[in-house]
Amino acid sequence: MTTGLARTLGGVNTDASLVVEFLNTVNVERGADLLDDLETWQRWARDHRLRADTPAAARETRDALRAAIGDPRLPRLGLRAKAEIVLGPEGPLLVAESVSEAVMAASTRLTVLGEWIRLKICPADDCLWAFYDESRNRSRTWCSMRACGNREKARAWRARTADVST
């Protein structure tokens, strides 16, 4: 798959979508990891028109990226990825075939465009879902204010009021 500098489809940033979907191949709340089932992992890669890495290589890439954007369960480690840059008719392109290569290329484009900081991990301990912050001032905290944000704010309020009443 050849990917250009800014992949968009109908105004949706597909680089961010690819990265977030890949980061969310692990579901902390359910204790499910798509990489645990080889057939499901290969189908995910095929659906994204990419070659599946080995589950171990994909997990290494996913964990390094999740740690880089704030997953508190994972140590921050460096990661090297090969990239091929091809000069095509529309300019330089990052060429990626495997999932890990494509996700790293997409992450690089997001960084170049100043959008990397919009990738975040929900701070709710039982969630840790990756999301792309589309707010104007980049201040979104929760994956969903209706679910995690509301639940965490209610917990904090109960803790504050319990301290006052004792």
List SSEs in N-to-C order: EEEHEEHHEEHEEH
For the biggest β-sheet, the strand order reads 1-7-6
Given helix and strand content, the structural type is alpha+beta
Low-confidence stretches: 1-11
Mean pLDDT: 86
User: Helix count?
Assistant: 5
Distance from first to last alpha carbon: 62 Å
**Largest beta sheet, briefly?**
3 strands, antiparallel
Number of strands: 9
- Helicity, as a percent range: 40-55%
Share of residues in strands: 15-25%
Radius of gyration (Å)? 18 Å
Silhouette: globular
Describe how the helices and strands are arranged:
Layout: E1 2-3, E2 8-9, E3 12-13, H1 14-23, E4 26-27, E5 32-33, H2 38-47, H3 55-68, E6 84-88, E7 91-95, H4 99-112, E8 119-121, E9 130-132, H5 145-165
Q: Features of this protein?
A:
two-stranded antiparallel sheet; 166 residues; disordered N terminus; 42% helix; 9 strands; alpha+beta
Brief summary:
The chain has 166 residues and is α+β, with helices and mostly antiparallel strands. The chain contains 5 helices and 9 strands.
Care to describe what's here?
- The chain has 166 residues and is of the alpha+beta class.
- It has 5 helices and 9 strands, in the order βββαββααββαββα.
- The protein has a 3-stranded antiparallel beta sheet. Strands 2-3 form a two-stranded antiparallel sheet.
- A hairpin with a 4-residue loop joins β4 and β5 (32-33).
- The longest helix is centred in the last third of the chain and has 21 residues, at 145-165.
- The N and C termini lie far apart (62 Å).
- Residues 1-11 have low confidence and may be disordered.
